[in-house]
Amino acid sequence: MRSRAVPQTDGTYRISGQKVYITYGEHDLADNIVHLVLARTPDAPEGVKGISLFVVPKRLINEDGTLGKRNDVYCASIEHKLGIKASPTAVLLFGDDKGEVGPGAIGQLVGEENRGLEYMFIMMNAARFQVGMQGVAIAERAYQKAAAYAKERVQSRAVEGSAGPVPIIEHPDVRRMLMFMRSQAEAARAVAYFAAAWADIAHYHPDAEKRRQAAATYEHMVPIVKGWSTEMSIDVASAGIQVHGGMGYIEETGAAQFYRDARILTIYEGTTAIQANDFVGRKTARDGGAVARALIAQIRQTAAELAGRAEGDLAAIGRRLAAGADAYADVVDYVVAQMKTDIRGVFAGSVPYLKLAGIVHGGWQLARGAAASARALGAGSDDRSFHVAKIATARYFADHVLTAAGGLRDSIVDGATGVLALSADQF
Ligand SMILES: Cc1cc2nc3c(=O)[nH]c(=O)nc-3n(C[C@H](O)[C@H](O)[C@H](O)COP(=O)(O)OP(=O)(O)OC[C@H]3O[C@@H](n4cnc5c(N)ncnc54)[C@H](O)[C@@H]3O)c2cc1C
Questions:
Q1: Ligand 1 test: best mutation among 79, 267, 347, most atoms within 8 Å of CB?
Q2: How far apart are CA 405 and CA 324, in angstroms?
Q3: Which of 5, 112, 261, 316 has its CA 20 to 30 Å from the CA of residue 240?
Q4: pLDDT tier for residue 126 given thresholds of 50, 70 and 90
Q5: Number of Cβ within a 10 Å radius of residue 97
């Protein structure tokens, strides 16, 4: 925010300042690196309305397209991190007069002055979705590794008795952990695809009103994809270590790396709290809960269809989903009603609300998958094992993950007092 951009007579700008945490801000993988940099021009308005966006290359480009002079942007250090160690995170100095162009990195304005934050959010919104997908990917990888190890590692007799020690996948608690991992990775992936489909409709539908509605639905889903999938990925990677026992804690198996790598996902591109603030404010309260309630109506429809089914698994999933939808609806009512009178109380529950929405959407998508698998089985599908597993995974999620929705609702609606009771100096 303090970086400065001074206009030059030739239409370029001279940029000075420091930027921290710049992913791939410096590396040896390419001859040139092009930075997109936010900076303030001398007469810019105060605050975020006075930020402009610039393109600043490490090496300037000559008229004939060849690489030219070294620009005045330098890497001061590469951070030492908990995880993602193959991703260089740079501290960059602009305007230290170290290049071949005199003091100030030479940059070109992108678009118009003072609209930099708006332009940056085009990238940020896409990046938030993509970081959610990183969460899905790490969770899936952690699950696959844990499932393979659980079939290999032999330890202890079976609880019901066995001739000798058995592969740990035979122990009920290892099954519990694997189902916890598998069901959440599967649910989060389905939620992300559901959101992505709305992004496609928002871009390509011929009807402008349908495009607008689809964009609103997609935007409602983005903080869920980002916030919930990434928080989930940490829990899943942690369970993956637990499945490996002692082997999980040492580096050799790679299970620990998933955990360390997942830990950044809830932080960069906006922490979970920032996603939750967006979800409560812009994505729920601003439209009076309209998009949230439209989604809840669809969730209730799926729940009612399943609850009426003869198959025990589908009916049970339907009942759990109905309860989850009720919890979601109660919190939307609370957020909309209390936003003006008790804003601190509402924001005290913002992250739990995001989590609640994540698990209800996850349960919904798995329920839809279970219904589709039941249809496929009814039609005599060749891939029985796949469809049986889809229904079982949805049932696990409904009984073990979706059931948290009611508790989260109670914490959000009744629990703000405890969050906010102490004064800052009592901590
Ligand atoms: C490895 C790595 C790579 C990164 N790559 C890039 C990059 O390429 N480009 C780039 O621009 N940035 C990058 N970042 C920066 C990253 O996006 C920020 O670190 C992140 O958004 C958090 O901001 P912060 O560090 O200022 O934390 P802070 O804002 O100081 O947050 C500290 C705590 O306070 C909470 N908090 C802060 N404000 C609020 C609020 N309003 N409501 C509730 N809680 C709040 C946060 O949730 C968090 O728990 C990277 C960071 C890391 C660690």
A1: 267
A2: 5
A3: 316
A4: very high
A5: 11
